[in-house]
Amino acid sequence: MRTGSEENDPEREKLNPKGWLQSRPSQQFNVIRRVYQQDALNKDADYQVPTKPLGYRCKRAVQSCGFGECLLNSLPVARWLPSYSPKKFLIGDLVAGATTAVMHIPQGMAYALLAEVPPIVGLYMAFFPVLIYVIFGTSPHVSMGTFAVACLMAGKVVTQHSTHPDLINAVNGTTTQSPFLSVGYTPLQVLCVLTLTVGLIQVVMWVLRLGAVSTLLSEPLVSGFTTAASFHVLASQLKDLFGIRLPKLGSNYKVVFTVIEVVKNIPNANWTAFGISAVACLVISLNNELLKPWVSKRSRVPVPIELIAIVVGTLASTFGHLKENYGISLVGTIPTGLPDANVPPIELMPQIALDAFTITMVTYTISMSMALIFAAKDKYEIDANQELLALGASNVFGSFFCCAPLCASLSRSYIQYQAGSKTGITSTVSAVLILCVLLWVGPFFEQLPRCVLASIIVVSLKGMFMQVKELNKFWKLSKLDAVVWLVTFLVTMLVNIDIGLGAGLLASVGALFCRSQKPYTCLLGRVLDTDLYLDIKRYRAAEEIPGIKIFHYCGGLNFASKNLFRATLFRRIGYLKKRDQNRDDDSNYSKSDFEWDSTIGKRVNCVIIDATALSYVDAPGIKSLVAAQRELVASNITVLLAGANGPVLEMIERYNSLESDSERLQLDTFPTVHDAVVYYKMLEQTKEPAITIAS
Asked: Rounded to an integer, what distance in angstroms lies between the CA atom of residue 501 and that of residue 507?
């Protein structure tokens, strides 16, 4: 840090003729030390491989698993609730809780339709699992409950495995007496066992500490997947928007076939339902685009336009007799009270395990992403493994009360955060208000037209539709990320959700492999009168040292990249030369475009491998180093290794201890490139007298 006198000193800094900032000589310093080889540095610096005895690790494990510490880690509510300050947090939590509850009602009822179950299930999801998440969850700002993509994926499973959806007349599991009841499962039974399976998978992942598994789903994959899933959601609502009936379609190519069937059935559309849908979509959209921004500047409580829409729709249907006069489809029976706890059909688990795992990955990734966004804003930590337990426990508990798999909602979470949410009390307040709706208000919505709920769903998809713009960002940042987005989006939208997610994972793995096969490599040159060695193609002031080639390699050296390392090394130093010297870029060359240069020993005397960016090396990688060294030594070229980190050097040492003398990697190693350069120059100077005498 400069003092005031230094900042006002006009001679402190000045520009050189090229415009570069040049410091006064008083700011320069020189470092005088011996030229180190790695072994000498290790001895002088007292290098030790860090080890932890088994007894020490067992002791630490036992200490960390004490009952009190284990209870606090597994029950975050035990940490924040005793220190809760009503004076600081209560008002914000009450306002945010009421605001979130108002959004839960229309969204829960609407998204339940995506899961192919009665709308009341969405309200159950806003009550039962949310209370469990308050106890186990670590994010006070995410709004758990229904989410369009999760409900859509659950609806796919329900459609595939339920055999008599028309037999349901109540949510508590009672069905019409029928001889077919013994041969299949109701949609609610399938949904319950699906939720239970998802919850158990999440609990097992928590036990195995697999919280980092969410990183397997990259940002381009999640963006492309959710964008394509929004088209599936839209397609599933077209029948209610137009008031038409569609035949049961297969699971693959469903979006395409749905659009075809809708077009075929346009002459049979209920134009009254379509008119109601159009008006509802227009009003909600105008509120979101015009009124909502204006209100947000003056109040943290938004206009509950979705709730207003379903109330107005219910009143219009009740007094206008829309079903009798115009054939409008209604929500139907909504029971009051809470459902009875029922054990899901466990025998169905093996058949839905794969679908449950897919839903687990998607819901956990989306929920963690939302939690991390708010954690970064408010500077607190999210425990990824604890979130697995929170989601798993919530899903297991909710599965006994007809709930779909739990997930954080993007829109509700943002509203809850903006409304002033501070702690988990927000979710508790929201759940209590939802309980009031379940106990007394539910039957009011029995006359609600389904087209109104469909309109709420379609308008809420705008944010996911707009993710299409992210393709342009990914394309500019990385073509491989853009390819991952496109593959995930196209396969998910055109084929199937599950297949699309699998294709996205394969594309992500392929992108990682492609990146590993194109590591950054270059030749380094020395900047005059410094110990800086920079890429000679990027820094014009960096000049190669005559007779010395410094090869910089960035990445891992393993079985997959060993051949690439060897070929790139030989091309960079000139051992492999181009047949066509008029081409500058060798990135698209094949092996046949290069030929061996047997005269390299006359131009290159030393090759220094800069391993400062070498992240990992395995046994096949070390063998490739041994082979490359032998070929260069056969041409009278000295090979040195510089800048390797501790784990790499330890791996080389372990490899040498297991191999015979002829197979060992015998390289002089140095802590820096400059040490290697100075060492080689000193070595050459000691040879000069002998060469002179001989001549």
From this structure: 10
